Amino acid sequence: MSHARALEQAPWLRSGPTARVLALLNGDGEEARVVGGAVRNALLQRPIGDIDLATTAVPKEVVRRAKAAGIKSVPTGIEHGTVTLVVDKHPFEVTTLREDTETYGRKAKVAFGRDWARDAERRDFTINGLSVDAKGVVHDYVGGLDDITARRVRFIGDPAQRIAEDYLRILRFFRMHAAYGAGDPDRAGCLACIAGRAGLAQLSAERVRMEMLKLVVADGAVVAVTAMADGGLLQMILGGVGYTGPFAGMIAAERELGIAPSAVRRLGALALVITEDARRVAAKLRLTNAEAKALEAMADHWWQLAGLDEAAARRWLYRLGETAYLDRLMLAWARMGDGNETAHWRELARLPQRWQAPKFPLKAADFIARGIAEGPALGHVLAQAEQAWLAAEFPLDGAALSAIADETVARFTHDHRL
C-alpha cells in the first residue's frame, strides 16, 4: 500500500520543463512521476541535480507523445525502457516501469510493467525508492520517508539479494550513508556488504574509482570509510592499507582552512605513505593521468614539509608550485599534525595567499659572459646559482645577483681545477 506525503515548496513540479514533461506523459490512461534522487534531495532540502521520471507508458508511446509535442527524444536505453527527452535544453531520462523476471548479477531480465510498488521494490535503497506525482504527492512503498526522517540508509528488501544484483551497491551503500546518513551505517546492510565483499573483484576499476571519489568528499565520509576499513573492504579496494586517522586529519585540515574538499587529496591521506603507494592506488582504481601524477607528487618525501620555518616553506613553494606544495603540505599535516601546532600548519598552508614566488632572475647569458661555455657545465652552474639564490631568500637587486653569479662561477672554476 502506498503511503503519501505532500512535497512542499516544489515549484519545479508546478512549472517549467519538469511540469511540461509530466503533463506530456500523464493522461489517456498513463501516469508519470519523478523518481529517485530528485525526490530524495527535495525532501532533504538539498540541491537537485538530474531529474529522472518513471512512467507507465511504453517507450514507443513516450517517443510518440514527444514527437507530437515537438520535443526531442533520444533512445539512450530504449531496449531497457529509457528514453531521454530534451526540454528547454534540460535532459530528462524517462523510464518505463519495470519488474525483474530473472536476476543474475547485473544482467537482470526485466519486463515492462504498470505496478509502481513493484518498480520501487527493484531499486537499491529505500530513500531512492520514492516517487512524486505532478500534484506533489510523494508515494512511498518501501519505508523511504521514515528513513529520510531518521537519516538512515537501508537496502530495499534482502540486502544480500540487492548486493548480488550489482556488487557496486556495496560502495554505493557506504557512499549514500556518507552523503545522507547519520550515526553508524545500518547494521544489516553493513553485514551484507562484508559478506559479499568478494564480489568487489568483479567490478571494473572505472566504476570503483567513480564511487570512491564521490564517497571521500561526502560530509560523513569519516564514519563510512572507518566502517569500510573495519569490514575489510578498504584493503580490497585500495590494494593496501587504508589510513583512517590521516584521512580524518585531512578533512579536519581542509575545514580549518575553509577550502573545498579535494577527492584526490583525501584519497592520498587515506592511502599514501610512499610514492609506491601512489602508483599502486592509481593502477588499482585506474585513475586519470592527472590524478595519478597528483598522488605521486603528494607522496614524494611529504615528511620533509613537517616543522618548516617560513624561509624553508618559501623554498618548497618555489620548487613545487602552489598546487603540489599545498597537497604535500596537507598530507604532512594530516599524518603528523599535532593539535597544538594547528596555527603553524595553517600559516604554512596559507603561504601561497600572501607570498608569490618570483622567477629565478639569472639567465644563461649571465654565466656565458663570465666564461662558462654552453653545454652541461652551463646547466650545472645555473642549478648551483639557483640554489644559492634560494638560500639567500630570493634577492632581486642587481648587486646581490651579480655576487651570486660571481661566487658560483668562482666555486665551479675552483672545483674543476682541482
List the keywords.
23 helices, Beta Polymerase, domain 2, 10 strands, cca-adding enzyme, domain 2, two-stranded antiparallel ribbon, 3 domains, alpha+beta, 418 residues
Count of DSSP-assigned helices:
23
First-last Cα distance? 94 Å
Largest sheet composition:
8 strands, mixed
Strand content: 5-15%
Task: Give me the CATH architecture of the largest domain, please.
Answer: Orthogonal Bundle
Percent of residues in helices comes to: 40-55%
The CATH topology of the largest domain turns out to be cca-adding enzyme, domain 2
Q: Looking at this structure, what is the CATH superfamily of the largest domain? A: cca-adding enzyme, domain 2
| Total number of domains | 3
Write down the overall mean pLDDT: 92
The best one-word shape is elongated
CATH class of the largest domain: Mainly Alpha
* Number of DSSP-assigned strands: 10
Helix/strand-derived category reads alpha+beta
CA radius of gyration is 29 Å
The order of strands across the largest sheet is 1-10-9-2-3-6-5-4
Overall description:
There is one protein chain. It is built from 23 helices and ten strands. It has three domains: 148 residues, Beta Polymerase, domain 2, CATH 3.30.460.10; 196 residues, Orthogonal Bundle (cca-adding enzyme, domain 2), CATH 1.10.3090; 54 residues, no CATH class. The longest helix has 20 residues. By secondary structure, the protein is α+β, with helices and mostly antiparallel strands. It is elongated, with a radius of gyration of 29 Å. The model has no long low-confidence stretch (mean pLDDT 92). The strands form two sheets. An eight-stranded mixed beta sheet has the order 1-10-9-2-3-6-5-4. A two-stranded antiparallel sheet has the order 7-8.
